[in-house]
Amino acid sequence: MKVVTYFEAIETRAPGQRDQWHEAWRSAGFEPIETGRNELRKSRWWFGASTAFGRPPSPRPEIDRACFFRWFAYATVAGPEPVSEPILCVDYDCFPGHGFSPADVDRGEVVIYDSGAVPTAVSVSGRGLSTIHDMLLKDDSLRKDAWYCDMLVFQHNRHRFKVLDQSNSFLHGQ
């Protein structure tokens, strides 16, 4: 099962963090895949995503832009939809907790593994990525706010997804 993350050299990271991320997920039985700007530019969603994001002010514009763009870059490694095998999408500093394996990934279309609907670990299957893309590109209810980011959109739309309280299955910031 694939586990994907999006990486941009935005802020200082611990030396070797990328290698640690790959090794931790590989050891847990996953196929770790890293995406970035190159995959984003290959996505059929590139124009829509780059047009939709970037105008509202943000206290952390580079991070919010990368967090928004990652969902569109993931489509290049997921393959054509409907995706039959779930794909786990995680932050670059999200590591598997003790004993977490591919068997623990929920097979729902879009599953958020945090009760607060924070999208640090989200699995998608079926047309899950298209659902997320549509939500991020078409949900204008939050664009009037001073700060617009993927996390706020996920939280605002949490009723559309399966939300689990499994944040203890992941380790953050190693």
Molecular structure report:
The protein is an alpha/beta fold. The chain has a single domain, classed as Alpha-Beta Complex (Spore Coat Polysaccharide Biosynthesis Protein SpsA, Chain A). Strands 2-1-3-6-5-7 form a six-stranded mixed sheet, sandwiched between helices. The protein is built from six helices and eight strands; from the N terminus they run βαβαααββββααββ.
List keywords for this structure.
single chain, 174 residues, alpha/beta, Spore Coat Polysaccharide Biosynthesis Protein SpsA, Chain A, six-stranded mixed β-sheet, two-stranded antiparallel sheet
Number of domains: 1
Helicity range of the residues? 25-40%
Q: SSE order in H/E notation?
A: EHEHHHEEEEHHEE
CATH class descriptor: Alpha Beta
Structural class: alpha/beta
- In the CATH hierarchy, the architecture is Alpha-Beta Complex
How are strands sequenced across the largest beta sheet?
2-1-3-6-5-7
Summarize the structure.
This protein has 6 helices and 8 strands, in the order βαβαααββββααββ. The protein has 174 residues and is of the alpha/beta class. The model has no long low-confidence stretch (mean pLDDT 84).
List the SSEs and their pairings.
Layout: E1 2-6, H1 17-27, E2 31-35, H2 37-42, H3 46-52, H4 61-78, E3 83-90, E4 94-96, E5 110-112, E6 121-126, H5 128-138, H6 150-156, E7 162-163, E8 170-172
Parallel strand pairs: 1-2, 1-3, 5-7
Antiparallel strand pairs: 3-6, 4-8, 5-6
Helix pairs in contact: 4-5
